[in-house]
Write a structure and sequence with these properties.
This protein is an alpha/beta fold. It contains 10 helices and 8 strands. It has a single domain, classed as Ureohydrolase domain (Arginase, Chain A, 3-Layer(aba) Sandwich).
């Protein structure tokens, strides 16, 4: 379908591209790379199918946006979902479930060569995945594209963050129920629970601003309290202040003030209230309405920050409903619009 035939007011067309948009990779301003991976997920599986579910749901959106006239002119393209990586993920997930159950039953990996082999396979696969993503990001950035990742579990964007940091320094705005500051959780070097621990190793990641954290270990709290590169806005503190009359707009201003001019947004869908993402890998009571996060994103833009890339992760699937994907597609749409608006060209 050509651009001239595209009707933003018509029926969504399942043309294989996100939102049914007619743009090619060459034309794209924003390129979203789907990563169908959830091998290290330690509670619920299924987020590896999130990219396909969001793609399927995305054509049901309408494309008026109150923050941008003719928002449908935003040239967004999603690259094909890798069947090879999805197949490898599904194979390793079966083995990972047994391995994680072994740990939960008190097993010690040093006494179990079979499970050590499984762990090594997953760590090696993730290392390759990270390298491939970093190389693809660099290639697209050289073409002037803004690059984003659609997971999958929250470990998936590490290659993107690594590649971005090769060229510029920035801060990360993390929307999440979890701090993700664990070192190689369950032995997985790139665990979904370690994405921010690994990101903070990268010299050009200058600040991590976490919003909505409400399920956290003592070790992670200790890290937050001892590291001036981390500013954490715990869900319980945000809510307590609101109950006493503080406005979300005031809190957003405080969050944004912690960030440098260039910002990478990492959005774990479990940062939202669980009724919005019931099939996410690790749901936690509490959290935000999607509208609250959208407000934060556009306040970030209004404050003059530039979004240099983003990810959306942990969108689960269910045979009973496409609700998670519906919400995920709308979250992704707002990330795209906020990113486009933030560009200073």
């Amino acid at each position: 379908m050509s651009i001239s035939q595209f009707d933003p007011n018509g029926v969504g067309i399942n043309n294989g591209n996100l939102f049914g948009f007619p743009y090619t990779l060459e034309e794209a301003e924003i390129v979203i790379i789907p990563v169908p991976w959830d091998a290290t997920a330690s509670y619920g599986k299924g987020t590896s199918s999130g990219p396909q579910a969001i793609l399927d749901a995305s054509t049901q959106l309408d494309f008026y946006h109150p923050k941008m006239r003719n928002a449908f002119d935003t040239k967004v393209v999603m690259t094909p979902i890798s069947a090879e990586w999805k197949a490898l993920n599904d194979k390793l997930c079966i083995q990972a479930i047994d391995y994680i159950q072994f740990l939960e039953e008190g097993g010690k990996i040093e006494n179990a060569p079979h499970f050590q082999d499984i762990l090594d396979q997953i760590n090696e696969a993730q290392s390759v995945l990270k390298q491939h993503l970093a190389e693809k990001t660099t290639e697209l950035r050289q073409q002037g594209k803004i690059v984003a990742v659609l997971g999958g579990e929250h470990s998936t964007p590490l290659g993107l963050i690594t590649a971005l940091a090769e060229k510029e320094s920035f801060g990360i705005l993390q929307i999440d129920a979890h701090a993700d500051l664990r070192d190689a959780y369950e032995g997985f070097e790139q665990s979904h629970a370690s994405i921010m621990f690994n990101s903070l190793k990268i010299p050009n990641v200058k600040k991590l601003v976490q919003v909505g954290i409400r399920d956290i270990s003592q070790m992670e709290v200790d890290r937050i309290e001892s590291d001036d590169k981390i500013a954490t806005f715990f869900d319980w503190d945000l809510k307590a202040a609101q109950y006493k009359g503080k406005m979300w707009a005031e809190q957003c201003a405080e969050i944004i003030a912690e960030l440098p001019e260039k910002v990478y947004v990492s959005f774990d869908i479990d940062g939202l209230k669980p009724f919005l993402c019931p099939n996410t890998g690790t749901p936690v009571a509490g959290g935000f309405e999607l509208e609250e996060i959208n407000f934060l994103l556009f306040e970030l833009v209004q404050a003059g920050k530039t979004i240099i890339g983003f990810d959306l992760n942990e969108v689960g699937v269910s045979s009973d409903t496409d609700w998670d994907a519906n919400v995920g597609a709308r979250a992704l749409w707002n990330l795209c619009i906020a990113t486009k608006l933030s560009q200073k060209k």
